[in-house]
Amino acid sequence: MATPVLRVKNLSTYFHTSQGVVRAVEQVSFSLAPGKTLCLVGESGCGKSVTALSLLRLVEPPGKIVSGEVWLNGRDLLKLASSELRRVRGKEVALVFQDSLTSLNPVLTVGLQLAETVVAHEGLPWKEARRRAAELLYRLGLPEPERLMRSYPFQLSGGMRQRVSLAMALLLRPRVLVADEPTTALDVTVQAQILAELKRLQRELGMALLLITHDLGVVAAMADEVAVMYAGSIVECGPVTEVFERPAHPYTRALLRSVPRPGEELVPIEGQPPSLLGLPDDRCPFLPRCPEAREECRKRRPELLKVAPGQLVACHYPYMARDEG
Amino acid sequence: MKLLEVKGLVKHYVRKRGLARRETIRAVDGVSFSLAPGETLGLVGESGCGKSTLGRLILRLEEPTAGEVIFEGVNIATCGEKELRERRRHLQIVFQDAYSSLNPRRTVGASVEEPLANFGVPRSERREQVRELLQLVGLNPEEAAKYPHELSGGQRQRVNLARALALQPKLIVCDEPVSSLDVSIRAQILKLFRELKERFRLSYLFISHDLAAVSCLADRVAVMYLGKIMEILPAEALSQARHPYTRALWRSVLPPDPRNRATLEPAVKGEPPDPANPPSGCRFHPRCPQAQELCRWEEPVLREIKGGHLVACHMVV
């Protein structure tokens, strides 16, 4: 396997609230190879977005990164001086969010915002910066980029705005793109277009993608590797075909079964995800909803251990290939 | 006997553009379909296609511009206030946003009790009925004392459903009722919808952008595009849809199957046009991979090609 471009080790981010400590991200580790896609999947509140923000040190108080390392290109981003970090953001690792309206400046034209990014980071003349922006917009499937660049964000549809945000993130040709639910608010036909474009650009630029989503269909379409998060921790990770076809964690298996598929019986997971406030750490966080729970699960929180080549699972009683009969 | 019959339903909005310019938005532009008792119709389409407006028109939460909505033999679109109130007993709606459709200052019990009180159920019986309703939707009757903010999204949607069920409706319009819920909770609520439908022989008009969710619940599916129905077909025939738009939607559904990932190439390009200026001829022609000259000039009519399967497309023979 190629040397990873991004390596995250034991990342923990806590929120110190008046009611107590919320352990939003607890000991998360993963790595990402150039040109590959890792999907971070889980339900709301599982800590996937806070993980993304933590990578770039964008967590706001009362949130705080309490431990961990984020290695990008031989440097630990969590130890970088803020002036250096600013140069890394955008240039080496870029971030794109679900809500494209809030990530664009409402009073500046699209073209100005895009070109400004290039001018600020690479010192290119404005004319050239605008040309590069226009080119990228065109490649993202937006016809008439010149006209588009003269518009303001509110004049665009959601799908167009999302593509502009994506262009903004891709302009500096980052080595790693972190995309947090980039297609969730969009119609399915637009989603398919954007995912296809993203994949194509990724191939051309050799860019690594950390894609955060709750949609297992998106994971199946995009991921090389997948990491399933539950209650702040990764409970299972590995190559996407392994994890989807032979899920070892009861949560992963249940999650996959609860996706509606035409003509198949729906099997929901009973109960709901736990509150992260005061979550006990001496037992498995999935315990109350787990069909396989036994005595051991009440005594000790399981660690992430290898069950198959490349596949790790945090469960005392993982499903093994032989269980499938 | 039909439970609901919608005939030529139209809703136009006027949008002001600057001082003098006005333009007409054709949100719903001539929609007809019917629903048998106990039948569920899924209504799918992209955002802005008019599916939510259509749902609201059926309850007359919006005044239609033209057309008829015949529910239990009464035209809801034109009937008087008193008649409308009486009909709404059997005609309920559940919205996507489970939180804002509940009064935050009222307990869950009070919210579920409200429709009972409105339709004259004696006070002495209400408390027991509220208990039963909460149990019916899978909530602990103890939850009646709680306020909406104390519940999770899935629980709130259960409360809304209990409220809708209070007066023993025949038809519930469900407007994206599971779209803002998490995967594991979404499956729970979908399953509940299905159980209730079978138990009380309910009809749903199930509005959603999620074809996979719709196909789990609906008997038939109607596909809307820019205010018009493009195709109506049995849910199990979705994979053999005939209209290019339905086929594109179906192909855009991403199955949770990593081996089956070659299909990411978009089935249609671009986005739906502005409903204020719908294209001439077939509304889908600018995005349609099969469009011919005829499609640009002549609007296709919705016609039956097989029992229960209707298509509005020139290219389907």
**Which radius of gyration of chain A do the C-alpha atoms yield?**
21 Å
CATH topology of the domain at 4-90 and 169-230 in chain B: Rossmann fold
Quantity of strands of chain B, as a count: 12
CATH superfamily of the domain at 4-90 and 169-230 in chain B: P-loop containing nucleotide triphosphate hydrolases
- Proportion of β residues of chain A? 15-25%
Write down the CATH class of the largest domain in chain A.
Answer: Alpha Beta
Enumerate how many helices of chain B there are, as a single number.
9
> Largest sheet of chain A at a glance?
8 strands, mixed
Name the quaternary structure: heterodimer
What structural class do helix, strand and pairing data of chain B support?
Answer: alpha/beta
CATH topology of the largest domain in chain A: Rossmann fold
Which residue ranges of chain B are poorly predicted, with pLDDT under 50 across at least 5 consecutive positions? none
- Percent in helix of chain A: 25-40%
Q: What's the overall geometry of chain A?
A: globular
CATH architecture field of the largest domain in chain A = 3-Layer(aba) Sandwich
CATH homolog superfamily of the largest domain in chain A: P-loop containing nucleotide triphosphate hydrolases
Organism (chain B): Ammonifex thiophilus
Region (Disordered) (chain B): 261-283
GO molecular function (chain B): ATP binding; ATP hydrolysis activity
Pfam family, one (chain B): oligo_HPY
